[in-house]
Amino acid sequence: MEEKEIGKVSSFFSHVGVAAIKLTDKLKVGDKIHIKGNTTDFETTVNSMQIEKKSVKEAKKGDHIGVKVPEKVRPNDTVYLME
Q: Model's pTM, two decimal places?
């Protein structure tokens, strides 16, 4: 499976398990992502995402999104789209 870098984690909200991601490429609900960093390494499917607390189906380069993740992520972790 090929991976393409599509963004970086800017912060993590542990009480809700949400990663804030600054996108450098597009992403949509249903896409599979791989988040990787020094101590982070897991894959997950994007079941929902939000921009400014509003649910969206897709986001584009430059958007700052929130995505629910199954594990803790850290600022500057890299987000890859699995194709």
A: 0.96
